[in-house]
From TrEMBL:
PANTHER family: C-MYC PROMOTER-BINDING PROTEIN, DENN DOMAIN-CONTAINING PROTEIN 4. InterPro entries: dDENN_dom, DENN_Domain_GEFs, Tripartite_DENN. This is MTMRD protein. The lineage of its organism: Eukaryota, Metazoa, Chordata, Craniata, Vertebrata. One of its GO terms (biological process) is regulation of Rab protein signal transduction. One of its GO terms (molecular function) is guanyl-nucleotide exchange factor activity. Residues 1-76 form the UDENN domain. One of its GO terms (cellular component) is cytoplasmic vesicle.
Length: 188
């Protein structure tokens, strides 16, 4: 399934190449608003008549995409790298299926590594119970829970968490690479 995901990743990277050059940051509100200039994007790519891309850009999913990926300072990922740095490679591979397949497999491997950062850790399988194990009498019953002790532990945990700083995610934020301007991607 990683190869299928890699194909879609490439597809959307090709569809949205240069989208960052059509983002406008509007700072008239307390919170900055990010606006995507659809007409400029379609016009510079020569795709004004393309109904599919027009419908994609008008959809709610693309609006969410812009609000999530529009900020210039956030955690970058594989999609950002494809859009910003792999433009020429994707163009060159259009007429060469073996190179395209090789790139898809590289992306799939990267997706797999992103989801499994520690491949050396093996997951232990839980063994199946033996036949007749449910008939054994030496299994101890589950112990009774002391409600008073549970409440004490909850109160201690709440007291500690109120004094502790809020937990933050370990992702490093960086300036998102803009990539080449959208005018470079004139499609036929």
């Amino acid at each position: 399934d990683k190869e299928v995901r890699a194909i879609f990743l490439r597809l959307f990277a090709q569809l949205f190449q240069g989208y960052r050059s059509c983002l406008q940051l509007i700072r008239i509100h307390a919170e900055p608003v990010i606006h995507f200039h659809k007409a400029a994007f379609l016009g510079q790519r020569g795709l004004i008549e393309n109904d599919f891309l027009t419908k994609v850009l008008n959809g709610m999913a693309f609006a969410g995409f812009v609000s999530e990926r529009g900020p210039p300072f956030r955690t970058c990922d594989l999609f950002d790298e494809l859009v910003a740095f792999e433009v020429e490679r994707i163009k060159a591979e259009e007429g060469n299926p073996p190179k395209m397949i090789k790139h898809v497999r590289e992306l799939a491997e990267q997706l797999f590594k992103n989801e499994n950062p520690n491949p050396h850790i093996a997951f232990q399988k839980v063994p199946r119970p033996t036949e007749g194990s449910h008939l054994r009498v030496h299994i101890l019953p589950f112990p009774q829970i002391n409600e008073g002790r549970v409440q004490e532990l909850l109160q201690e945990g709440l007291a500690r968490s109120q004094g502790a700083p809020p937990a933050t995610r370990g992702d490093k934020k960086c300036v998102v690479p803009a990539g080449p301007p959208v005018g470079m991607f004139i499609c036929s």
